[in-house]
Please model this.
Amino acid sequence: MQRDSLSRRSVLSLAGLSLASAGVATGAQTSYHSQSAPGATDDEHVTRESFQIMEGTEKETTVYVTDAEADGPTVFVIGGVHGNETAGYIAAEEIAEWTIDAGTLVTLPRADVVAIDRGTRVDDDGIDLNRQFPEGSEPQTELAEAIWDLVVNLDPAVIVDLHESRGIYAGNPVDGVGQAIFHANRDEDRTAADSAIEYVNDNYIDVSERAFQTGYFSGPDSEPTGLLVHKAARELGSEAFLVETLSTENELEKRVTWHSAIVERLVEDELFPNEEPNNGHEPEEPIEEEPDEPDEPPADEDDDESGDDVPDDHTDPVAEIRSDPSSATERTLEPEQTITLDATCSEAPDGELVSYEWSIKNDGTFNESGKTVDVTVSASGDHRVLLRVTDDAGASETTEVTLTAA
Ligand SMILES: [Zn+2]
Model:
């Protein structure tokens, strides 16, 4: 969807509109600062500006506008709607500093500064900001009204709201949803969301339970209602997305990276029409990794216990157990009888065996080592014995025998 871009002049008039509408509608002050944001550079074919909404109130917060020389659509990114969803507002602050190739990027990183200061989902009146945007009627708080005025004036082609959840599929469609992109129920929104999760899952996610999924916002008649993105999709026709990362099981830095990468993909046609986005964390760049917890993709699905770095064409070793007496595994033994198990006939076709480990106590732990082991069957019943052999490439294979005592 292509729309007229906001030129720099229209951004200025936008601020004027915000001032007028916020002043009239809510009594809150909105002011506009035409100078560049501190630290921003204007030599990259973008201009950067910022202004406040809810100025002079405890909810005063900053809106950042990045305008490219090249015309293009307007994108609005919002974070901090829920104060305890940290990666969303940290990512939005990074996104506010992006250099874009075309169009206009408007960012409101810290939507509810009171909730953020409290570190809670809701503000000090217990108000959940993302339930204050009912479809077909006015927003229900001054802050929601100020945000909605901004969105209406922007008329964004795309709106993205960055959140976090604390559980996977805990029941509520918006909370406890794990890692997900929720989108408006239209083909182009679904296509963009599917493409974004495919990219992120392929390039960043190494545990299948953490893979991002997509889903629709709730329908007009179902809970939850009052979502900002829902109202923007239905009343303004914006492509609308709500992104959730799982905060309970992933490091903050990773979650911020995932948010940034997702937003890049969702808005690449609008803000990066000519080349690959280059603001977020390209997979080619080193992603911060724990030295002892490398972000390797999972090893191949074999149920052997090969190490992660065994070459694909490596032939795994063969584990084999012989017993003395040789018939010990085929007949019932006397209680307290001792059997010698021998692993010397195991083989390593592509190298040599470097370890022989045994589990002889029916508990699955390998606490004996050596080419042979003596096992005393001390009680009646089955005694399961495991042998694991490992070769010098780190590939291993496990086999087992069962000794049965009377
Ligand atoms: Zn949230």
Notes: The chain has eight helices and 17 strands. The chain has two domains: 8-271, 322-405.
